[in-house]
Amino acid sequence: MSERPRRRRGVVRSFLFGGVVGGLVAVAAPRLRRGLEPREGPLPVAGLEAFQGAPCWEHDRGRAAAGAEPADDGDG
Description:
Blueprint: H1 3-34, H2 55-65
């Protein structure tokens, strides 16, 4: 048998093996990820609530309570 058909067979076999392994990982990854325990620490917060504890939020709220006009930043 010549070298070319053996080489081609090896390339095809490698391609098929990689496709099967990749497919299995793609199917198994979400299942494995769902089974992980939640991380330690605070839960992620979305939206405006994520900024409400920041020092700049407290500063702006203090200015608004004092009746100060918001600074014009030149955007509009």
